[in-house]
TrEMBL record:
It comes from the Bacteria. It holds the Pfam family Phage_integrase. One of its GO terms (biological process) is DNA integration. It comes from Latilactobacillus fuchuensis. CDD domains: INT_ICEBs1_C_like. Keywords: DNA recombination. Residues 20-229 form the Tyr recombinase domain. GO terms for molecular function: DNA binding. This is Tyr recombinase domain-containing protein.
Length: 242
């Protein structure tokens, strides 16, 4: 890979987004998917996809989480790390999964969680502690991984892809989206919920607004008309005050 030349990114015209195929889940489709995760009965998988859908985080950012990254008092989630396949040594072809700091300042972020997700996380933490006691596995408390593998180590970065395939096949979910499209789903639903573009960019850790804006514009085309109406309403309400 050291001898491989970097691929030059193709410039994407934001105005051409309506000509592209944008695949995301609608609110109903997302709800059905998360219901399927619940019915599957694996609490780790259910919790993982809940966080994926409700935070817009990258798949490996969630796999790198430890419990001290979650503040149950303030309902905040700190994203500061990610997982990656790294070489064991320069002379070896062997690799291992390791936790790395986020590469950019925007990648390091603190985002809010809703009360239902916080409640599910607390239940998952308690379940994890009790399960580890039964299996005789050491629990590292605040340094404990939120989503470890069976050996209480890092999951493979591709593991969530396998979970996604399993859920879709088991419950006959015809519309299967990728893990990256879960991020786009989060952006699209935030846009539908009338959230500001800057707030959405912060949640998903985007420094460049191009990708966020593409999804935002695609699913929220009427925002300019709404802005015009809001401005007109403001003038009518305030014209006799100042």
């Amino acid at each position: 890979m050291r001898k491989t030349e970097p691929i030059k990114r193709k410039h994407i015209d934001e105005n051409e987004i309506d000509k592209e195929l944008m695949v995301v889940y609608t609110p109903k489709e997302l709800s059905n998917y998360l219901d399927a995760c619940h019915k599957h009965g694996n609490k780790k998988i259910e919790m993982y996809f809940r966080l994926l859908a409700y935070t817009g985080s990258r798949k490996s950012e969630l796999l790198a989480l430890v419990w001290e990254d979650i503040d149950f008092k303030t309902n905040k989630l700190t994203i500061s790390k990610t997982l990656a396949e790294v070489e064991v040594s320069p002379d070896s072809k062997k690799t291992k999964v390791a936790s790395q700091s986020a590469k950019t300042n925007t990648g390091k972020r603190i985002i809010s969680l809703d009360k239902a997700t916080i409640s599910m996380l607390k239940e998952w933490e308690n379940y994890q502690v009790e399960s580890f006691k039964i299996m005789g596995i050491a629990h590292f408390e605040k340094k404990q991984l939120v989503f470890p593998n069976k050996k209480n180590d890092f999951c493979r970065p591709g593991q969530p892809n396998d979970w996604n395939t399993m859920i879709c096949e088991k419950f006959n979910i015809a519309k299967k989206i990728t893990l990256h499209e879960f991020r786009k789903t989060h952006v699209s639903l935030c846009a539908m919920a009338d959230m500001d573009l800057e707030d959405i960019m912060h949640r998903v850790g985007h420094k460049d607004s191009k990708m966020t804006r593409q999804v935002y514009n695609f699913f929220y085309p009427e925002r300019e008309e709404r802005s015009a109406e809001k401005f007109a309403q403001f003038i009518e309400q305030e014209k006799n005050i100042f």
